[in-house]
Amino acid sequence: MHKNNNQIMPCSKQLTGPIPYNMTNDYMFKAVLQECPEARTGLVSALLMIEPELIDVQVTNPIILGKSIASKDFYLDVRVTVNNKKVLNLEMQVRNEGNWTDRTLSYSSRSFDGLQKGQDYSEIIQLHQISFTCFDVFRENNKFYDTFQLTNQDHTQIYSDNFKLSVVNLKRIDEATAQDKSFKLDAWCKLITAKSWEDLQNIAKEDPFMVATVEKIQSLFNNFDIQEEARRREEYYRRLHQCEETIEAQRAEIAEKDSLLSEKDSLLSEKDSLLSEKDSLLSEKDSNYASLLAEFEEYKRTHK
To answer: Which of 61, 94, 268, 304 could link 79 by a cystine bridge, Cβ 3.0 to 4.6 Å?
Structure first.
């Protein structure tokens, strides 16, 4: 059960109405977790189902907030250490590009190989990749929160505890289990997806870690450069979506034209078949005519 003894402070109510960019914006996700110790401690404790007082969570890949990101493909994952014994890689992904399992597996595998020259394999630090998605990753059996490990085929033996991958499906918050709720993972996900300041405040009002998170979100929105970077990320994904829609529309148009051409070819083929049949009938008629003519000539010759 998620507990804390911290004093609960009321959220600031300076901001009201819609949130321009909530934490499903990967830049805001990075900014909040990087700048707010309470946010990363509270969220990580919910994900690992450990009391927040028992963990120390530190960001190991910070960025300079407000500084323009040159590459739109820049990874805005949040890598943290937990008590210097475990590495968590937290990543927000709103768009379904159809390759999420392979992408996270590839990225996690590279991140797992962190040994320096001369280090023993026993010094490997456990890696846990946790993806926050706004879509179903799998064709079936999708859950709100699911964790995967390497096991044998009959799932009776775990190959190693040092490599895990989890998916938090933000579309399925309502499917949270009693255990998820006991550590407030569903509440954290509602906070991440909240669309108004009022919703944020209502979600956070009973939890000091969430209260501090909302306060930090509000302070980040007082920074124009941070807002601008969040806007640019949103604009990037919007344009990417438009390009994908345009490409899809062009593909549909090409497919329709191909279908019409195929139908035309079929009609031409049918016409050719009819012409061939007509030629066959004419040839048969000519043959019959020649045969009758020959019989007639023979009749005339024999009846002179």
So the answer is: 61
Side-chain-side CA neighbours of residue 232 (13 Å): 16
Which pLDDT score, from 0 to 100, does residue 196 have? 95
Q: What DSSP assignment string belongs to 190-214?
A: HHHH--BHHHHHHHHTT-HHHHHHH
Residue 137 domain boundaries = 26-222
Q: Are 112 and 121 in contact (CB under 8 A)?
A: no
Residues whose CB is less than 8 angstroms from the CB of residue 33 and which lie 6 or more positions away in sequence, other chains included: 39, 40, 43, 59, 78, 80, 90
Domain boundary among 183, 200, 222: 222
C-alpha 39/C-alpha 209 separation (Å) is 6
Q: What are phi and psi of 34, to 5 degrees?
A: -70, -40
Task: Answer yes or no: do 208 and 248 share one domain.
Answer: no
Within a domain: 11 = no
Residue whose entry in the numeric block shows the structure tokens 């030629």:
279
The reply to whether 185 and 271 lie within a common domain is no
SS3 state at 176: coil
Q: Is residue 10 part of a domain?
A: no
Residue 293 in this model has a pLDDT that exceeds 80: no
Percent over 70 (pLDDT), the chain? 88
Picking from 20, 23, 40, the residue whose alpha carbon sits closest to that of residue 170 is 23
Instruction: Name the strands in the sheet holding 86-93, side by side, starting at the edge strand that comes first in the sequence.
Output: 57-59, 78-82, 86-93, 126-133, 163-169, 145-149
Between CA 274 and CA 262 the distance in angstroms is 18
Cα distance between the two ends of the chain: 123
Q: What is the pLDDT of the chain when averaged over all its residues? A: 85
Kindly state whether residue 1 falls inside one of the protein's structural domains: no
